[in-house]
Design a protein that fits this description.
Helices cover 10% and strands 49% of the residues. By secondary structure, the chain is mostly beta strands. It has two domains: 34-118, Phage tail protein beta-alpha-beta fold (3-Layer(bab) Sandwich); 139-318 and 342-558 and 601-646 and 695-864, Beta Barrel (Maltoporin, Chain A).
Length: 865
């Protein structure tokens, strides 16, 4: 970005905020009020309309509002006042974690039992106790908020969360998705909280698991249509005690719409102004409600063309057929339904289905096209999952559930490799999941501070990975992998929430005190067993100040791919390494690099601590700061983070063998299913191999990640029935890894292909009944390229996004209930910084952090029928 662009970007945002601050000061006397004009209708529709207009999260249980209606709400009210008018005296509303929670009113029936029944409301991610606030900070992102900022799909969500690293399984990672040592065989999008890996972030749908995606142990969030989403709840804190393996970096829970009344359709077209990335998206959501039940069905179709290297100035040196982004087409659908079977039992169903087809082109030369010297991959992904659930109310404020999840994610990728003729490879990966889980939650005993509550549960999980890898060359087909690996897990958990101080016994500077404890036991047949605890404390000295602290342990079982990944033996020229030992290797020498899985891998263990404070000094303003520390032991990774520096990095010394014998070389080559992959450009001669570099996976000694998160948001009403909201969040992370005990630590943050130290996003949103406008500033800090003797800094990546909509105020005709939206992402056309590479054909920018999309313009229209 040039200096003039930075100045313009800063000036635009400063001008926006300056105007906003003035308007907010003038509106304070109105206490955040706005004009509502809602008809008499069922209560659920009214609450959703208030949430949409007021841009507030309003959480309620379907059974609490089912069959209830609200009167017309017309006038100027705060969001809280409008909710109270809508719910009447049978329900109450209070604020929790920035959201308004609607529950039954215990005062209508009286007594501790009624109060316990009133807790039958919301379970927020981070706790299995209904109505309880967990000790970990919760990030809540609403669907409507995403739409208003011009975010079109779930794949884009991963790029705006400051706590998430976009390296790894992300379609924005260039070179076929493997830059920086990552792999994305099928164009999926997985969350990667704290940059610990997609396999260390647990992603749930309505609280239940989905099958893993392709070969890596992540969940593809892009298969969920945005129109089917209600909200996303994220805790960037270890949570294995609550949810099991994978939840080391945190948990993301995608909450779907439970039902919907009517039909909504939308269409969107867009393209990058510099060329390529032409997108089409068509979505629909519909459903209905009836006495005791309802359903929602959503479908989404998206299509995008690739960006080629010759469409960007900074990649024109590459082959013109090299793709910077992929060609893709996806159809996905979601169904949710619920039905009361009796007063004490209800049935619920979640189902997801997706089909995605992509095309990736990677050129191995800057002069020859992909079809002469390169590879074209054609992955096809088919995914389904369904979860039927029975919800029981045995009485006494208790609720229990019995759920079964069945799902499959199938990836078949056909690769056409053009090296000395055509070679065709086919890789098939089928992931299967079967999960049975039973749970119960309810009050134990009434204490002066409220009811102590217990959640217990257990179940059985089975998952399997079938893989078949074959290649055809010269009419001969060779099968290199054909196996099926499975794992079974038995688990049980419990969580206790004890309110020491609550509304009934609070006192000055002692508004609330709540203790929590959780424990989970999990046994993986024939592999490992582990018990993980988590302790939490919530202390509120004042209604506007809340402190939270959590401590816990987490774990992650080695993925089936990590254990079974095939061994590789790759021959490289010595001069392909960025640094040389002293004295340097002889001219013409080669190096044998071995990599792959390891059947002896053990479970990873981690200890996490999080301390946060939330401050609400005035109406509409919320400030939050968190400190986190993750001590990760036995981390599964290659002992060599960058093989090109293996000869000069002290931490890699244990993995380098100089002057290997011919017998040692042959033994390693014999273990590789594909044999020797000679990329040296010269014949293999054992006598010329000067060293062996072992980059295979192993349990590294230790990894430490720590940092801070900060967030602020302010909402207020302006004159004329309009509203403005300011929001900002940022995350600072420090990371380091010790590959071997007693060896120096290596940086895992602030370096090329790793998370930058700083990442942040700020936004301002203004709207009234007809117009809506938002501006968002995205910041990714600079990183350091330490791969070569002369170090270099890669500049930060700062973009400005604008989005605005128009809702015609008409009551009839074709434009009734329509919304037109124009969005401009990266308005100032920020370009990635160039990086150095040993190979001229390598992608010349860090695509794990910086994007080649450039300025992107889109137009969408949405209509409610």
């Amino acid at each position: 970005m040039t200096i003039s662009k930075r100045a313009l970007c800063a000036a635009m945002l400063a001008a926006t905020i300056s105007y906003s601050d003035t308007a907010v000061v003038e509106a304070r006397a109105q206490a955040g009020a706005m004009r509502f004009d809602l008809p008499a209708q069922d209560l659920a529709s009214t609450l959703r309309a208030i949430a949409r207009q007021g841009d507030r999260e309003i959480l309620f249980a379907d059974e609490e509002v089912r069959g209830k209606r609200s009167g017309a709400i017309r006038g100027i009210y705060t969001v809280e006042q409008a909710v109270r008018l809508a719910i009447g005296e049978d329900l109450v509303v209070r604020e929790e974690s920035g959201a308004l929670v609607v529950r039954g009113n215990p005062g209508r029936a009286g007594g501790a039992a009624a109060q316990a029944e009133a807790q039958d409301a919301i379970t927020v991610t981070g706790s299995r106790i209904r109505g309880a606030e967990g000790p970990s900070p919760v990030i809540i992102v609403s669907r409507r908020g995403l739409e208003e900022q011009g975010i079109p799909d779930m794949a884009s969500v991963s790029r705006i969360l400051p706590q998430n690293f976009t390296g790894g399984q992300n379609p924005g990672v260039a070179g076929g998705g493997d830059q920086g040592g990552y792999n994305n065989i099928n164009n999926s999008t997985t969350l990667n909280l704290r940059g610990l890996g997609s396999d260390a972030t647990l992603t749930l749908i309505n609280g239940h698991r989905l099958p893993y995606d392709a070969v890596n142990q992540g969940v593809d969030i892009s298969i969920i249509p945005l129109v089917a989403l209600e909200r996303i709840e994220v805790i960037a804190d270890g949570a294995s005690a609550l949810y099991g393996s994978d939840a080391v970096g945190g948990v993301a829970n995608l909450i779907l719409r439970r039902d919907y009344a009517g039909l909504l359709t939308s269409a969107r077209v867009g393209a990058s102004t510099e060329g390529g990335n032409v997108q089409q998206q068509y979505s629909g959501v519909g459903g209905t409600r009836w006495a005791g039940g309802g359903f929602m069905a959503a479908i989404d179709y998206t299509k995008a063309t690739p960006i080629y290297a010759d469409q960007r100035d900074y990649t024109r040196g590459l082959a013109s057929s090299q793709m910077l982004t992929n060609d893709s087409r996806q159809v996905s659908g979601v169904l949710t339904a619920h039905q009361d079977l009796a007063d004490w039992v209800a049935f619920e169903l979640d189902a997801e289905l997706a089909d995605r087809r992509s095309r990736k082109g990677v050129a191995y030369s800057v002069t020859a096209p992909v079809t002469t010297y390169g590879q074209i991959s054609l992955p096809v992904v088919r995914t389904y999952a369904f979860t039927p659930l029975l919800r029981f109310k045995p009485g006494g404020g208790w609720e229990s559930t019995l759920a079964v999840t069945k799902g499959e994610s199938s990836t078949v990728s056909t690769a056409r490799r053009y090296i000395n003729g055509l070679q065709i490879g086919r890789s098939a990966y089928d992931n299967y999941l079967t999960n049975f889980e039973a749970s119960a939650e309810g009050p134990l005993v009434q204490l002066p501070g409220g009811a102590a509550r217990l959640a217990i549960g257990g179940g059985y999980r089975r998952f399997r990975l079938d893989f078949n890898v074959r290649s055809t060359s010269g009419g001969v087909t060779t099968v290199t992998r054909d196996a099926s690996e499975r794992r079974e897990s038995l688990f049980g958990y419990g969580e206790l929430s004890v309110p020491i101080v609550g509304p009934a016994n609070r006192m000055p500077w002692l508004e609330a005190v709540r203790l929590s404890a959780a424990l989970r036991y999990e046994r993986y047949t024939g592999i490992d067993e582990v018990a993980t605890p988590k302790l939490g404390l919530i202390y509120a000295p004042h209604p506007g100040i809340t402190f939270k602290y959590s401590w816990g342990r987490s774990f992650k079982i080695p993925t089936l791919q990590q254990v079974n990944q095939p061994r590789e033996a790759i021959l490289l020229r010595a001069n392909q390494f960025s640094t040389q030992p002293t004295p340097p290797l002889p001219a013409g020498a080669t190096v044998l690099v071995v990599a792959g899985g390891n059947p002896g891998l053990r479970a990873e263990r981690a200890t996490s601590s999080t301390l946060s404070v939330e401050f609400k000094p005035v109406d509409g303003l919320r400030l939050e700061a968190s400190w986190f520390d993750i001590d990760y032991r036995g981390r599964i990774a290659s002992g060599i983070s960058n093989y090109t520096t293996a000869f000069t990095n002290p931490a890699a010394a244990a993995f380098v063998l100089y002057a290997p014998s011919a017998e040692q070389q042959q033994r390693l080559i014999a273990d590789a299913p594909l044999g020797l992959e000679n990329q040296s450009g010269q014949p293999y001669e054992p006598a010329q191999v000067a060293a062996i570099v072992d980059a295979s996976l192993r349990n590294t000694a230790r990894e430490r990640t720590r940092g801070i998160d900060i967030a602020a948001d302010y909402t207020a009403a302006l004159g004329g029935g309009s509203q403005i909201k300011l929001a900002a969040s940022a995350s600072y992370v420090e990371g380091k890894r010790q590959p071997v005990v007693d060896q120096p630590y290596e940086g895992r943050a602030g370096l090329i292909f790793t998370p930058p130290h700083w990442r942040g996003r700020g936004s301002v949103d203004w709207q009234n009944d007809v117009l809506q406008f938002s501006a968002s500033l995205n910041y990714l800090g600079s990183t350091f390229d330490n791969r070569y003797p002369v170090k270099a800094t890669i500049g930060d990546f700062t973009t400005l996004d604008l989005s605005g909509s128009f809702r015609p105020a008409v009551r009839s005709g074709p434009f009734r209930n329509t919304e037109w939206r124009l969005s401009l992402q990266n308005l100032l056309n920020e370009e990635p910084d160039r990086i150095r590479n040993a190979s001229a054909a390598a992608i010349p920018f860090d695509s794990t952090n910086q994007s080649p999309i450039g300025r992107f313009a889109s137009l969408s229209v949405t209509k409610q029928w």
